[in-house]
Amino acid sequence: MQRHSHRALVLSHVAFEDLGSLAAPLRERGFEIETVDVATARFPLPQADSCDLLVVLGGPIGVYDQQDYPFLADEIALIGRRLAARKPILGICLGAQLMAAALGARVYAGQQGAEIGWSPLLQVAPDATPPAWFAPLLAPGVSVFHWHGDCFDLPSGALHLAKTAVYAHQAFALGDFALGLQFHPEVTAEGLERWYVGHACELHHAGIAAAHLRSSARTHAAALQEAAARFWKLWLDSIFREIRL
After folding, report:
1. Which CATH superfamily is domain 6-243 in?
2. Which residues contact residue 206 at a Cβ distance below 8 angstroms, ignoring those fewer than 6 apart?
3. Which among 93, 160, 199, 220 is annotated as catalytic?
């Protein structure tokens, strides 16, 4: 049995938006994974300062909903401390928006409406050279999964990594320690079945059929899962060089 020498703390907002395809690469590297339900957590969370990797997952609420969900202010403060300490952190969707807010960037309802479904990422500029670890997600034939209504301005000093035809800011990095992703590289076709149930009301109001998303997943999910496996490995290797396997 492999000895756990590194710890990942996962901040979860709804149970069905989980680590998905990121869980296996973390465990393969010997990470012990602790998941905290932030809605019922008791802040501050001391393990958020001491863990080797902090992962902030998605959810159906917004950065600006702090009056209805007061824990968001504590969560943003926690993320801000992590960023100030330049310790490894990954934010996905709401997690990336919380990171942007902690960095002083504006987070707001997207003017183009909700971006829900599968579409490819685009390079920021034709001559841009993304980090090698990000390249698998930009490969021809790879579409990623989107489910967000909010967007954010690019934080000051951040490296802009990708855009889509709908929203310009889809991914950013800070140094070699922080990564914010508006899209969802972690999803699998099987895991998305829980999303269709959990977000049934939003799908109804948006006029999007779960059957349509399921059909699209049959077309795109396998290629994303393959690309994401390469991406997770390369990104984790770039941050945790001492525990490459």
Report:
1. Class I glutamine amidotransferase (GATase) domain (3.40.50.880)
2. 114, 116
3. 93
